[in-house]
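Lab notes, practical 5.
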Amino acid sequence: MADITAKVVNEFRQITGLGLMECKKLLQEAEGDLKKATQLAKERGLKNAEKRSGRSAKAGRIEVAFNENNTAGAIVELNCETDFVARNDAFRAMTGDLLKHVIATASAGLDLLAQQFLINPAVTIKDALVDLNARTGENIGLARSERFELSGPGRIDSYVHHDSKSGAMVEVSCGSAEQASRDEVKQLVKDLALQVVATNPLAVSRDQISPEMVEEQKQLIKKLNENNPDNAKKPLQVQEKMAEGQLNKWYAENNLLDQPFAKDPSVGTVADVIRKVSAATGGEPIKVNKAIRYILGETASPDAGTEE
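Output from the prediction step:
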């Protein structure tokens, strides 16, 4: 059996990220040949990834990143099995690398796993996740990703909770690049992202809520009112007016623009705050184009290297 020195074990560990004992074992099998040992590590990683693929992966991280002028951004949820691995440097680095890939390639959701990894074009993203699976010993899965990109002046920004278990990304359009660069606008978009995480609106505006959701709510209101004996005694016109008011209240709670501003409800609705910031930054209207919110683990638990 080849004499495996500590120097060779440490060198192999730097290459693979595996534990010392596992590195020594693989090197012994490969009779000290680094290239052969690396191949064995890859083969073992693939085999072990298959074994781990059915295990629940509800821990992980939600992270967001942007290009240098905040005109393109990405949000990613990468899952693992435990919070311990979610805090691991290699896992955190993978999340950051995936964000760079999505921002640069405009590829969120488009067979992302099969693409050559921007950080290392010699492998696919799936290969990189399988390698991380082998290094951490846990089922690793890319649950989802989303990319925003402005076609004109504006800003994209985010809020991610300190534990990286929830986050949101918001895109707004502005009248000019100068307006988009104002501190008031930067703060506004961050505040809107915080609002989205805190209140989880169904849509940006009332008219964007799906007709199916509206109809479902109408039927729920109707059923609740019919089951209330006090309402049944009231004239039909009054009952209809009450139902209309209840629906309007539901609308206001479930679209971003009509919600009370979470950071300071005393200043009015989100729409009121946007109008004030628009006026303070030159008068051009600021428009919220879209928003997205991720909560860790709310999608189905992915298999190793799969994306929902």
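Observations recorded by the TA: Residues 304-308 have pLDDT under 50 and may be disordered. The beta strands are 59-66, 72-80, 116-117, 120-124, 141-149, 154-160, 166-173, 287-295.
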